[in-house]
Amino acid sequence: MIKVMVVDDEEFALEKLKEQIEQFDFVSAIYSFNNPLHALNALADLDVDVAILDIEMFGMNGIELAKQCKCLRPSIKIIFLTGFSDYAVPAFKIHASGYLLKPASDEEIKEELLYACDWKPEEGTNEIRIQTFGNFEVFVHGKPVAFERIKAKEMLAYLVSRRGAYVSGDELLGILYEDKPITPSAKSQLRNLVASLSKSLKAAGAEDLVLKKRNHLAVNTTLCNCDYYKFLQGNIDAINAFMGEFMSNYGWAEFITGYLEQTMTNRNL
What we know:
By secondary structure, this protein is an alpha/beta fold. The protein has eleven helices and twelve strands. Helices cover about 45% and strands about 20% of the residues.
C-alpha cells in the first residue's frame, strides 16, 4: 500500500486526479493541495511515498516544489502531470520517476504509480522481468531463466523487440540464420527451437509469455516488465537506465540501438 500527495492549483484538475487515484486498491491515502506552499508545509508531518505535481502553478513552480519535497523527504518519488512537454529535461535532471501529459488516462497514472514505487506482484503470481539494456536477459521471480539453446533465447529476444507483433516462422529463420535458405530442414530446426523455448519458459513458470498461432509467434507484453517498453512509454527511470546498449549480444538489434540513441538526443535538445 502506498500514500500519495497530489498538488495542482486548478481545482477541477485536482478533483479529477483524486477521483482517478481513489479507484486504485494499492493506494491507502491521498493528500490533495491546490497550493504548493501549503503542500510543502504539510509534507513535514505526512507519510508520503509519491507526489504527483503540476508544474506551472501560482506561488511555486512544480520543479522547485519537487526539489523542496526531496529535501524534506529524500525517498519521495516525484511524478509530474502537466499540460506542457517543455519541462521534460528539467524533470530528468532532478531524477523524477515519471512525466505525464494532461489529460492522463487511469491506466497511465496507475502504471506510473506502480513503477515509481517498484511495486511487485504478490507472492505466487507470475512476475516476469525482461532486461534489454545491455545484454538480453529474462527473470522470473528474480531468478534468470535458463535456456536450453542459445538460438531459442535469441528467438525470444527478437520477439520482445517486436513488442507484441506476431512474427512468422520465415522471418524468425531469416533473423536467426541470416541468409541461409529456408528449407524443410531449417523449418524443422525452428520447430525444435520453439519446443525448446517453450520447455525453458515452462520450467521457469512463464509458459504464457509466448503466444502462438499457426506458424506465428508473439510476446504477451501484458505479462512482463520490460525496460525497453518503459523507455518507449516515456518512463524517466527507464530513460535514465539506457546507457547506449540494447541487446548488445545480437547484431540485428543495432538498428534499435540507433533509434533509442536518437530518441535520447531529441529529448535533450
